[in-house]
Amino acid sequence: MESEYEVHHNDRELLIKIARETMEENGLLTEFPPEVIAELEQINEPAKPEGLPNIHDLRHFLWASIDNDDSKDLDQITVAEALSDDKVRIYVAIADVDSLVKKDSAIDRYARYNTATVYHPAINFPMLPEKLSTNLTSLNPNEDRMAVVCEFTVDSEGTVCEPKIYRAYVRNHAQMAYNSVAAWLEGQAEMPNALATVEGLAENIRLQNEVAQKLRKKRYLHGALTLQTIQTIPIFDGDEVVDLAIDKPNLAKELIEDFMIAANSVSAGFLDECQFPALRRVVRIPKRWDRIVDLAEQYGYKLSRKPDSKALNEFLIKEQQRDPLRFPDLSLTVIKLLGSGEYVAEKPGEKAPGHFSLSVKDYTHSTAPNRRYPDLVTQRLIKAALNHEEPPYSFEELDELAKHITAQEDLEAKIERKTAKAAAALVLENHIGETFNGFITGASEKGYWVRILEIPVEGKLISGFSGLDVGDRVQMVLDSVDVEKGFIDFKRLKKR
Predict the structure, then answer these.
(1) Is residue 299 situated within a structural domain?
(2) What does the pLDDT look like over 39-95, one tens digit per residue?
(3) SS3 helix, strand, coil % of the chain, rounded to 5?
(4) CATH number at residue 473
(5) Alpha-carbon distance 415 to 404, whole Å?
(6) Domain count, the chain
């Protein structure tokens, strides 16, 4: 009997089929239903500020977006303004999705169910119809758009002060990509065309980069963790997967990440000041801290038995400097032991747990409302607070939402891992029987998982795992792959 792979002879088509089936098997939606399409047909223009009070016109600012090469759903644009006292004012404009996607509408109910855009190697399943997410609610270049602006000042030490939030009319003057901007910032390539054609933008991006580095340094001093994982992207030659590329961190990605962390903290603080309930993004104090301590001891570093993010980060920085090639492997192990993040509802005046990895006490998700549902919820809360209205969500609603979003996020991460493994299996199927070096990334009653070093791929260790734990190094043989199921199985190499 022929397998699906033999029938298709087309890697892209097969990966799309696997992604769609895996989504549906896990209860996620893959097609917009008729009521969403009907509602969408009534929305034909972007939101405009006519008749709305307190809308700032900031279209003249040197706004620009930096995102992935293939991103079309542009959620945020940024700009910097140098002040006279060694301070810099940063503006982060976030797409006003709520103006077109109303709470409890058919489009909103669909987004609320899936809770996020789900990314796969050959296809993405958007949270919102692309007529919105890549057009009418996207901060596309040379288009006037409504936005919610997070404004904050950063001093010479990287301290955030003078936070403000308000609504504004904005215009993206240049759409740029992480890799080309980073190559230019790092002196490895010429200035990207999109940057060169806007007068003054190059200087502004350099200023933004300087501020971002100060923000990052400040967070590290307070215990934010230095973590660097390896993400792989399938390389297609036509419709065939021929290799896996490593998606590496760079200055442009760090710039946007640092500004988004700051903006998310400003959003959380604003809702707290307004005595509004809120969704918080938290990473709790790790339950497996004892294993992190044991792991550090293997590297000759002593950590306290009491969880301490600052001490952990000092250990991580030293290992990054000592062995940068293997540091992503250590990072992955630590991330697994820290545990995943979750959403929790916070009552006015009360404090939810903080974000252990970022060393941030007040943190929400607010900067990607085209792609993440909690960001859209937070946007609605912020806009209601700005308008001096009652919160659009009760604490009970937010509590129910937090549990649902966390569950869906965990499910979607599992689905994304499976389809990523399916793509990796296509690359590895010609390497069965070969020996690889790796380390344990997961250990539970359900099984043991390993990451191989030669090709950054994760699989299951199906034998020889007795006595092993997360972080242990192993040598193993690739036993089998199953593209359709996303299985990559290894056996531990027996010592002679």
Answers:
(1) no
(2) 999 999 999 998 888 899 999 999 999 999 888 999 999 999 999 888 999 999 999
(3) 40, 25, 40
(4) 2.40.50.140
(5) 16
(6) 2
